[in-house]
C-alpha cells in the first residue's frame, strides 16, 4: 500500500481548531511525546483509521479537518484507558469528547454521520419523554437516514418478546429532566460545559 503524503502549509494547518480543542478539553495536545501507550491500551484502536496517539499527532500538526472527516472519534467508547495510561497527563478521553462536540457543532462531515443522527435522536427522546423511546428512535432514525427498511424484520420479534414497546409513557419527573437540560445550556453559554 502506498503511503499517503501529508502536505503541511499555512493553508492546511489550522491552529485555531487546536486551540479550541485544548480549551474545550482542558488538556494540552502539545505535551504528547508520541510514546503510543494510549493506543496500545485502547480497546477500540483496531477499528479506528487514526488510533488515539495519531489523533493527537494530527492535532499537533493542525489537521483537524482530517480528524473530523474520519470515523475514529465516533468509535471511541470514552473508557478513559488512554487518559489513565498517558505518562504525560494528556487527557485524551476529554480530547475525544471535545472533537465529537466540534464535529457535532459543524454537523459533519463525519463518515459516521449516522452516529451523529442516532446521538441527536437519542438526546431528543430523553428531553421529550424523560426516558428512551426505542420504537420512536428506530422509526425516526430510519426516516431521517433514508434507510426505511433497516431492521424492519427485527421490530415484530422484539415487540412479541416485550423488548420493544409500541406505546410509551413519559417520565413523571420530566420537569426535573428539563431543568438539567436547561442548566447545561446555560453552562454552555458561559463556556462552563461542552
Ligand atoms: S477513551 Fe476512547 S480513545 Fe481512549 S482508550 Fe477509551 S476508547 Fe480508546
Ligand atoms: S500516551 Fe500520552 S504521551 Fe503517549 S502517545 Fe498517548 S497521548 Fe501521547
Given the structure, what is the number of helices? 11
Major β-sheet profile: none
Tell me the count of domains.
2
CATH architecture of the largest domain: Orthogonal Bundle
Mean pLDDT rating: 89
Global structural class: mainly alpha
The unreliable regions are none
Report the bound ligands by name, code or SMILES: iron/sulfur cluster
The quaternary state of the protein chains shown equals: single chain
The sequence of SSEs as H and E is HHHHHHHHHHH
Q: How many beta-strand runs? A: 0
Compose a concise summary of this entry.
The chain has eleven helices and no strands. The protein has 194 residues and is mainly α.
Any key phrases for this structure?
2 domains; Fumarate Reductase Iron-sulfur Protein, Chain B, domain 2; 194 residues; binds iron/sulfur cluster
What's the structural blueprint in terms of helices and strands?
Blueprint: H1 15-25, H2 37-41, H3 52-60, H4 64-68, H5 72-75, H6 81-85, H7 92-106, H8 113-129, H9 134-145, H10 154-160, H11 174-189
Helix pairs in contact: 1-7, 8-9, 8-11
The structure holds iron/sulfur cluster (2 copies).
One iron/sulfur cluster binds next to helix 6 and helix 7.
Provide structural commentary.
This protein has 194 residues and is mainly alpha-helical. It has 2 domains: 15-106, Alpha-helical ferredoxin (Fumarate Reductase Iron-sulfur Protein, Chain B, domain 2, Orthogonal Bundle); 113-189, no CATH class. It contains 11 helices and no strands. The chain has helices spanning 15-25, 37-41, 52-60, 64-68, 72-75, 81-85, 92-106, 113-129, 134-145, 154-160, 174-189. Helix 1 crosses helix 7 (92-106) and helix 8 (113-129) runs antiparallel to helix 9 (134-145). The two termini are 39 Å apart. The relative contact order is 0.10. The structure holds iron/sulfur cluster (SF4) (2 copies). Residues 32-38, 53, 56, 85-86, 88, 90, 92 line the site of one iron/sulfur cluster.
Amino acid at each position: 500500500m502506498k503511503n499517503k503524503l501529508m502536505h503541511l502549509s499555512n493553508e492546511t494547518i489550522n491552529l485555531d481548531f487546536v486551540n479550541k480543542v485544548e480549551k474545550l478539553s482542558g488538556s494540552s495536545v502539545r505535551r504528547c511525546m508520541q510514546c503510543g501507550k494510549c493506543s496500545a491500551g485502547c480497546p477500540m484502536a483496531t477499528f479506528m483509521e487514526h488510533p488515539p496517539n495519531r489523533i493527537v499527532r494530527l492535532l499537533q500538526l493542525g489537521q483537524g479537518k482530517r480528524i473530523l472527516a474520519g470515523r475514529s472519534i465516533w468509535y471511541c467508547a470514552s473508557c478513559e484507558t488512554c487518559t489513565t495510561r498517558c505518562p504525560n497527563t494528556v487527557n485524551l478521553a476529554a480530547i475525544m469528547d471535545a472533537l465529537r462536540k466540534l464535529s457535532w457543532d459543524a454537523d459533519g462531515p463525519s463518515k459516521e454521520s449516522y452516529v451523529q443522527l442516532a446521538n441527536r435522536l437519542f438526546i431528543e427522546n430523553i428531553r421529550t419523554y424523560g426516558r428512551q423511546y426505542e420504537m420512536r428512535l428506530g422509526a425516526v432514525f430510519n426516516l431521517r437516514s433514508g434507510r426505511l427498511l433497516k431492521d424492519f424484520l427485527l421490530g415484530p420479534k422484539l415487540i412479541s418478546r416485550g423488548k420493544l414497546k409500541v406505546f410509551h409513557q413519559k417520565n413523571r419527573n420530566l420537569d426535573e429532566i428539563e431543568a438539567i437540560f436547561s442548566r447545561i445550556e446555560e453552562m454552555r453559554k458561559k463556556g462552563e460545559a461542552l
